[in-house]
Amino acid sequence: MDSIHVRIGHNLQRIRKMRGLSLDKMANLTNVSKGTLHQIERGELQPTVTTVWKIATGLNVSFSALLKEEEAAVTIATRKEVPDVTEDDGRCRVYMLFPFDPQTRIETFTITISPGGRYTSPPHNDGVQEYITIVSGVFRMEVQEEPYTLREGQAIRFAGNVRHSYINDSEADVVLHVVMHYSDL
């Protein structure tokens, strides 16, 4: 793990380069001198909390965006043994794989539905898209009461701002991979 001032410097430089900003332009946006920004980027200066806030405000990023550790190029998620949440007396189990990422606006999870299990979701906010891939089993999806029977290897995409239900009428567990995209969070 890097020391905090080195991490801030890497994050600051990454944001600046990603936005195509010169040190001069960034200095104008943040009201922090070009020399100070250069020293911070090189990990030579430990900025004060006030300076980090000025930079975050000027660049319109969160305070923690400058403090966070760089994410690994590859992240492996393994489904937990115990579900994060359940529904329908435990017949519908949700396992978070990747929590909401504000940069991609995506979260992913696995849902396992036991035989006879059902979950009806209230409408989500406008702009939410659901992408569901059937990993195993056969299940019925209802979107605004329109039924869709889906099998292993198939996928469905729909606007999540309508009533929708996940139903397992089969004799075996159904396993779903779900990707939620939030356009307005």
TrEMBL record:
Domain named HTH cro/C1-type: residues: 12-66
Pfam family, one: Cupin_2
Keyword Translocase: no
GO cellular component, as recorded: cytosol
Domain of life the protein comes from: Bacteria
GO molecular function: DNA binding; DNA-binding transcription factor activity
Protein name: Helix-turn-helix transcriptional regulator
Source species of the chain: Paenibacillus oceani
